[in-house]
Amino acid sequence: MPGRVSVEEAVKAIRTGLAAGKMHIAFPDGFGFILRLLSGLPAFLQRALLRRMVRS
């Protein structure tokens, strides 16, 4: 499964983000990037793209 991370990697990402005072902690990086891009789109485009992603 692409983007899968181990527990150790997840803990490291969370601890690093908390120590840096980040409001949002997303991992893996590619997944967080995709979510940030989607959040900038209008709702109808978000739904259309997510439907296609779920089907494939």
Automatic annotation (TrEMBL):
The keyword Transmembrane applies. It comes from Enterobacter asburiae. Keywords: Membrane, Transmembrane, Transmembrane helix. The chain crosses the membrane at residues 31-50. It comes from the Bacteria. This is Protein YjgI.
